[in-house]
Amino acid sequence: MNDDKRPRGRPQDADAAAAIKAATLQLVKERGYRNVSIAAIASAANVARQTLYNRWNTKADLVLEALFEETDLYAAAPLNDPSHGCQFLLERFLGQVFAHLAESGDTVRALIAAAQEDRAFQAVFKQRFVKPREEMVTALLQRAQARGEIAPSRDVAMLSSFVHGAFWYALLNGEPLDANLARAITAEVFRA
Amino acid sequence: MNDDKRPRGRPQDADAAAAIKAATLQLVKERGYRNVSIAAIASAANVARQTLYNRWNTKADLVLEALFEETDLYAAAPLNDPSHGCQFLLERFLGQVFAHLAESGDTVRALIAAAQEDRAFQAVFKQRFVKPREEMVTALLQRAQARGEIAPSRDVAMLSSFVHGAFWYALLNGEPLDANLARAITAEVFRA
DNA sequence: ATAATAAATAGACTGTAGTCTAGTAATTAA
DNA sequence: TTAATTACTAGACTACAGTCTATTTATTAT
Fold first, then answer.
1. Are B112 and A158 inside 8 Å of each other by CB?
2. Residues A101-106: what's their mean pLDDT?
3. CB within 8 Å: A117 and B126
4. Is the pLDDT of residue B1 over 70?
5. How far does the CA of B55 sit from the C1' of C20, in Å?
């Protein structure tokens, strides 16, 4: 049931996408987003520059996909583990996010910057990066509220904005994203 | 006491800076940061392109200065007016910031993006934009805490990060910055 | 076989930020 | 008056993102 009718013309090179994404990841980690040109990626992947543009609209789209193919492998520890309190789960979650950003934070910053200059990419980025994380935290905070760890009067959606906002604010202003920050954010959200 | 010894060579054209900044503001508001080239600004100001680079390092530096020369005129309503509660003052302050961003928000977004791609500019932007606002809000929240409007246990620095973070997060994700947001942020910060 | 289709390639092209240089103009110091 | 100094101008130059086009190549449909 997988060999549906193949489409008409010449098929896409099956290996190209993987080679391109691998080259992208390697070069971006090595030199930083800014210092990697599309031409360099194409060359490293042994592919014509236009082939990249056949498959991705912009450099940002390509890097986002390459980065997320890798990142999605990191199965975050479950946020609904009932054997832990929600405060613990949030702090652990933030700690994991920050640990990952220690490696890829510069790239994420570049992608956020790219999103400010390109509406289409902003939508893609929001869909793939922003929304999922926001939903995870909001759901966790709702559970916390249902369990009485957060007062019923609190505005959970706004608290979720506080959490992500504090994280973006630190990231974009070049402040360290470490365990201290994860603890301070979490503690303040759960403070009576 | 103002006519100190003039420096050695040919003096800078006294009118050029004003003409350049005026052209910058007008073009950026008209077409958006992205769609204004340095060449277009130089041409509109009747000045050689290199003259811009004699005075500013990058497009972002120029736009920041042009924008702030205008913005600094907006004397924000005082944040330490003792005849109002701190909650009221914070909401009014955020309302003013958001109202101004309704006009210049796209430019500010572009500047934040530029700061992600240029360390030197990030430092300048932090100094001129980020720090002053952060200090105003932190001072206000400290006063609120001293007056008992905020519980002594709260971490005021983190609350300030929450406020700015929520605002950046909304701005950079294309969500509306309006009176509702100002009210929701403020209410949640002051919630018991 | 042949036609139709779509991907890949090479390379020209546009627009922009930022750098560099050579020449000219305005000013101070001697 | 002349030398030194600095700003301004014009324009060449580099590097890059993204677009476009002509050509070749791999595939399906007839």
1. no
2. 94
3. no
4. no
5. 16
